[in-house]
Design brief:
469 residues, two-stranded antiparallel sheet, single chain, alpha+beta, 3 domains
Length: 469
């Protein structure tokens, strides 16, 4: 028997998860629209995904199925804001696995959760320790939420290594909720409803086992858990700091390559960046390049540059539609070049959304008017609503739109609802995000600000007049 029937190598677990998830989606579609897809077609697609979605089988095996069942709608020609399944690259985007938040974000969130929730648990535990219960029950219910939150947060990191630990996150969260519920309900019941005369003498806790002894031991356990958790998180933050900075640098390069349509999965992004991208620092006021040393500028974030008295400036209230108060006097601009010819111009942009400051890049074609793409690499909007600004399908809606009208005025708009395809204004409009009006307005405002006279506007008009030489 040996290895008969076994694959030559194990597939990555993320590939298996992708196949299962897409299989569920296809099965759901069958349930409601049984004429759309035969069961055997669904099995063929799922098996193809489980085998790693090899490109050699796409044209002969998968594309005919999609042509028959899906491509009436899932094509760019339909004008619908749905995934494009008409090409292998479109399938890859749909099948891409979300690996979750970065290590940097997880460390930041864990720091907040451990200290914030730890304080709440400490106060609640102090109240609960005075309840009339056997000491071992009180100890167990007070320690349980501390252990649960620590296990929960630790599992965030372990899940990036192996998705199986996602179950631990769920179980630990359930234990946290259960222990907190019991502490709260028991404390409220005994405070408001339990009468002292109903407590029998046999249930009373002797003084030597109550008050100082039990409270001291509880404090010792709680403080010990807090100190251990804090120590581990601090060590992780210090040890991971160099890696966080490197990941931030690579993340920025990746987003520049994405918006420039130069990003290739598993390729050396540093090499691609160095071969194709040229950086120039721009004086926004004079619309000229800086000749002086830009080392300090490159080391500071946009916020730090904006706050610096030498490198930042206050934005007049009537111009501050991006709601950022101050901006750097100098901003980096990235050119995609082929020889000496500019192919695309990539502009850093940022401004306020609903809950957070949105940071991204806007790419223009070499006419300095046509939008080539947009991407956001840092935001804190509501997932599924405003957070959809990072959705590749929404970002693709920007491609080919005109940033300026015939008079050179900023004309691009994120509208409420969907763009009417045959409207004469459609070339200047992008669909708004459903349920995220304020985030959509924030994106619209920040794009208008950075393309306007106080942003890159003067430079772009100058570049257009010069013919991009």
């Amino acid at each position: 028997m040996g290895n008969q029937g076994c694959p030559s190598k194990m597939l990555p677990i993320h590939t298996m998860v992708t196949a299962v998830v897409l299989g569920w989606k296809l099965q759901f579609a069958d349930r409601w629209r049984p004429t759309y897809r035969q069961t055997e077609d669904r099995h063929i697609i799922v098996e193809w995904l489980k085998n790693g979605a090899p490109k050699k089988d796409y044209s002969s095996l998968i594309h005919p199925i999609l042509t028959k069942t899906c491509l009436q709608c899932h094509t760019p020609a339909s004008g619908l804001n749905i995934p494009n399944l008409s090409s292998y690259s479109g399938i890859q985007e749909v099948a891409k696995v979300d690996t979750g938040e970065s290590i940097h974000t997880l460390v930041k969130l864990s720091h907040i959760h451990l200290f914030g929730i730890g304080l709440v648990l400490f106060v609640l535990g102090y109240i609960f320790i005075h309840s009339v219960l056997p000491n071992w029950i009180k100890y167990a219910l007070i320690v349980m939420p501390f252990m649960a939150i620590f296990t929960d947060i630790l599992s965030w990191f372990l899940t990036k290594w192996d998705p199986i630990y996602a179950y631990t996150v769920v179980i630990a969260g359930g234990l946290l909720g259960l222990s907190l519920s019991l502490q709260i309900l028991i404390s409220l019941y005994q405070i408001w409803f339990l009468r002292p005369d109903t407590i029998g003498t046999n249930r009373e806790i002797k003084p030597e086992n109550n008050c100082s002894n039990s409270i001291l031991k509880t404090y010792q356990v709680v403080i010990g858990v807090c100190l251990v958790g804090s120590f581990l998180v601090s060590i992780a933050a210090v040890k991971l700091n160099p890696r966080q900075k490197e990941n931030q640098r690579l993340g920025k390069i990746r987003n520049i390559l994405l918006v420039a349509d130069l990003y290739t999965e598993n390729a050396n992004i540093d090499t691609i960046y160095q071969q194709n991208i040229k950086t120039q620092w721009l004086n926004l006021k004079t619309a000229t390049y800086l000749n002086k040393n830009t080392f300090k500028l490159e080391k500071l974030s946009f916020n730090a540059l904006a706050k610096d008295q030498e490198y930042g400036k206050e934005i007049p209230a009537k111009l501050d539609i991006a709601n950022i108060k101050r901006r750097p006097k100098y901003m980096p601009i990235y050119f995609v070049k082929k020889g000496n010819t500019i192919q695309k111009i990539i502009l850093p942009i940022y401004g306020k959304g609903l809950w957070s400051t949105l940071y991204g890049f806007l790419a223009l074609e070499n006419d300095a008017k046509t939008i080539a793409g947009i991407t956001f690499y840092q935001q804190g909007e509501t997932p599924g609503l405003g957070g959809e600004i990072t959705n590749p399908h929404w970002q693709k809606l920007w491609q080919g739109k005109q940033a300026f009208d015939a008079n050179g005025k900023v004309a691009i708009q994120v509208i409420k609802g969907e763009v009417v395809p045959n409207s004469p204004k459609a070339i200047y409009q992008v669909d708004g995000l459903s349920g995220a009006t304020l985030t959509s307005r924030g994106v619209n405002n920040l794009v208008h600000y950075w393309l306007g006279s106080d942003g890159y506007g003067s430079f772009l008009h100058k570049l257009g007049r010069q013919g991009h030489e």
